[in-house]
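Q: Could you fold this chain for me?
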Amino acid sequence: MRSRKFLKAEQARLAWDAPGLLAGVDEAGRGPLAGPVVAAAVILDDLRPIRGLADSKTLTALQRERLNDQILAKALCCSVAQASVEEIDTHNILQATMLAMRRAVEGLRLKPAKVLVDGNRLPTLDVLAEAVIGGDARVKAISAASILAKVHRDRLCQDLHAEFPHYGFAGHKGYGTPEHLEALLRHGACVHHRRSFSPVAAVLAGAAGQAEPITAAMLSEMVAETTQIEVRIAP
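A: Sure. Below is the predicted structure, expressed as structure tokens.
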């Protein structure tokens, strides 16, 4: 019987492939200032190939929508999950992302023999898993997962926009754009903003009289710092 130590070591790059179904996993929404982080897991059907799969960031919105429909129709199974703003603020964005990924894998109708995850970190799973840097452009199943996650989160942002149109969520999708930062300064944070992210925390502190007045330039610097930290966490 394999020891616990050996099983844990398999959560790394593997020199061999386990026979059976392969699932790709990716996320969307790690960097925005608002909204949940979304993850998807996809097991593709080799007998029903999908043309045009690629990293969702390289595709247009229309291409993503069309591929999203094809993936849902042709894949053996798919699962989309998320971690809430509250979970992001409680655990931090990295741990919340891992939580969303684990939920996506656990939500698959079929259990994969191996899971390939985009990036350099792995969620805690009960199956073999391998992190693949740049996997959303290299592995079709991960590309499919990146598309499902992106489309699902963009649709969530449309819902946020309908609820709070003055923030412009439909356009910037929660990212720290100048438009979004100006809206934050003008209207303060709403229930969907991530209070653990420094630009939002600064606005809340200013509104509570706990800090000097905040400018859009100051918030932009905080967004840049947050982005740099994000890149270092998971390239």
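A (continued): The first strand starts at residue 22 and ends at 28.
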